[in-house]
Design a protein that fits this description.
Chain lengths: ~350, ~270
């Protein structure tokens, strides 16, 4: 059952173009040129209850704008969306009681107060019974190891501690849908893993539906079976994470470690040459040609080591971001739905 | 209903605790307040002939000094500050956290404001009591119990009114960014129009009539004149009624501006 339904959702922003220099500044005082930027261009997708969906895209692709519309913070300029069977931007109380959004770069806690105070405020705001609150808070604080930090002013906490506190605050009322916008940005590996573990556990145990944006692939690989990719406001992929590299799976990465430097021009003569770093050269070779390529390289170059690997996920996503793979990747999710 | 009380009661507590976090700042604001009081007292002392019973702008010397001291303390007491936080929330997108939560921003800010004022009122009340005691002992300032009780009621009205006035000012942030200077300019004008610097009679008959027709005087001059005994307790009722009408009108205006502003915020984003 779809818990999030997005249909042709669009959002454009008006802005004034400011010409360069003092003359431009003076001119803009009198006459300004109004322009429209389309941040989200009519995207359509749906998310089922209990899914964890990675919402990916390069900077400025429209991810945060989309999440803000789905959380009810922003009105769209076109299209429709329903979250928990409600139009989000109507901001009904019943809707707000069942969702949460964590914006990695913007804390929801009160910086001058200890996190405990913010949690108590959230308890009152979400009308959480005392026993439920204490049990839930105890579980979350225990899981993140935050017990000794509860009385410290939030602005004195480290970035990782603050982010964990933010996530605790967002989960106290047991939301059905959680929007996470860059929740691990700037965090160390241990903190990233702790957040990933918590999201995975809540998804499994409480069927929490999660939409997650992150530039860290480890977040996506560890949490999401499905990804929705947007670029320049448009949907470029909606399907299984495993399918992202579908177009690239016909190729492999061959890495050569050489015993002596080889001129760049010589390496560039080989098809699929990617880059050279010290004595290590990287090639992207069609799967069928790997054998012949390897034989030729071993014969002609001073090779001391040769590695053949699948093309990393980053490359597949980057290809989608660049538009190289647009239209080539099948929408595996929709196809699965039709089967 | 009990959930709503618990919700906004907790917000009140946040304001209260925040004011403790900044208690030194608050204490210093009293020291800063001393200099205008000293300057104005010196000014009036020079303007009144020594020992004369002359009236200036309808005030004798003792009344004018009492007015200066009490008006200054009242203006401290009813002073807001949430409009800066409101502006920051709008400008930086901090308003997002309120829009996604089942709580009203107006109720939140009002509760936090009153919570912060609760602690400050105790301290200001002590300073005011000391000032009144000194003026009673050395200047013969007349003090009546009924006036003190009516004054307390007028302070509640003044707090409410000033909150609503500065809520309107804060809503400007939806349309203009970087308006810190505007806030300061508006604050000085409003304090002046409230009688926080001089009694409104200083502005002449016409000026006073115009300012009487505005809500600002109920935030400083009205409570000050009640405590000074210039507005007899039995005559204060009409003032309370008029202030109540202003509260109702401003509440409607606030609601209108907020709804328009949030619609714009949701359309434009942060």
């Amino acid at each position: 059952m779809s818990i999030i339904e997005v249909n042709g959702l669009a959002r454009s922003f008006a802005y004034h173009e400011k010409p360069e220099g003092l003359n431009g500044s003076l001119r803009s005082l009198v006459r300004r040129t109004k322009k429209i930027r389309e941040a989200v261009k009519g995207i359509t997708f749906s998310v089922d209850e209990g899914e964890v969906v990675g919402f990916l895209g390069p900077n400025g692709a429209g991810k945060t704008t989309t999440l803000k519309m789905l959380a009810g913070i922003m009105h769209p300029s076109g299209g429709t969306a329903r979250v928990l069977d409600t139009i989000p931007w109507q901001r009904k109380k019943s809707f707000r009681m069942r969702i949460a959004i964590v914006l990695g770069q913007r804390s929801q806690l009160w910086p001058d107060l200890p996190a405990r105070e913010s949690f108590l405020l959230n308890r009152a705001i979400y009308e959480i019974p005392k026993s439920d609150y204490e049990r839930r808070l105890g579980e979350l604080v225990e899981r993140f190891g935050l017990k000794d930090l509860m009385g410290i002013q939030v602005r004195r906490l480290s970035l990782g501690e603050r982010m964990k506190m933010d996530i605790v605050a967002a989960l106290l009322h047991r939301p059905s849908v959680l929007f996470l916008d860059e929740p691990t940005i700037g965090l160390d590996l241990l903190s990233q893993r702790a957040i990933q573990d918590l999201v995975r556990t809540l998804n499994r145990e409480e069927r929490l539906t999660v939409m997650l944006t992150s530039h860290y692939l480890s977040d996506i690989e560890n949490l999401c079976e499905r990804v929705v990719l947007i670029n320049d406001g448009s949907l470029v992929y909606d399907g299984a994470l495993a399918g992202v590299n579908a177009t690239l799976s016909e190729r492999k990465t061959v890495t050569l470690v050489l015993s002596a430097p080889v001129p760049h021009a010589v390496l560039a003569r080989y098809d699929g040459f990617r880059d050279m770093n010290g004595l290590t050269a990287r090639f992207e070779v069609p799967r069928a040609a790997v054998k012949s390529f390897s034989r030729q390289a071993l014969d002609e170059l001073p090779v001391v080591d040769l590695t053949i690997e699948e093309i990393p996920l980053e490359e597949g996503i980057a290809a989608l971001y660049r538009g190289d793979a647009r239209g080539e990747i099948r929408d595996t999710r929709r196809e699965a739905g039709r089967e | 209903m009990s959930d709503v009380i618990a919700k906004y009661g907790r917000c009140f507590g946040v304001g209260l605790r925040n004011s403790f976090a900044y208690r030194i700042n608050f204490a210093f604001s009293f020291l800063a307040a001393l200099s205008p009081v000293v300057i104005q007292t010196a000014l009036w002392t020079n303007l009144y002939k020594p020992g004369s019973a002359d009236l200036l702008f309808g005030f004798n010397y003792v009344q004018m000094i009492a007015y200066t001291v009490i008006a200054n303390l009242v203006s401290r007491l009813v002073r807001t500050g949430f409009e800066y936080e409101m502006n920051t929330d709008i400008r930086t997108g901090g308003l997002d956290r309120f829009l996604v939560k089942p709580i009203g921003y107006f109720g939140f800010r009002m509760s936090v404001f009153l919570g912060a004022k609760a602690a400050q009122t105790v301290l200001t009340g002590m300073v005011l009591a000391a000032a009144v005691a000194v003026m009673t002992a050395f200047l013969g300032f007349p003090l009546h119990g009924a006036a003190v009780a009516t004054f307390a009621g007028s302070i509640l009205v003044a707090l409410m009114l000033n909150f609503l006035i500065f809520w309107c000012v804060g809503c400007v942030g939806f349309w203009l960014t970087e308006i810190g200077f505007l806030f300061e300019a508006v604050r000085i004008i409003i304090i002046t129009a409230s009688g926080g610097i001089f009694p409104l009679s200083v502005f002449g008959d016409l000026g006073e009539r115009i300012l009487d027709a505005l809500p600002f005087r109920f935030t400083i001059q009205f409570p000050t004149e009640i405590l000074c005994g210039r507005i007899p307790v039995h005559e204060a009722a009409s003032g309370f009624a008029l202030a109540g009408a202003w509260i109702a009108a401003l509440a409607l205006l606030d609601r209108f501006l907020w709804n328009r502003g949030v619609r714009r915020f949701a359309a434009v984003g942060s």
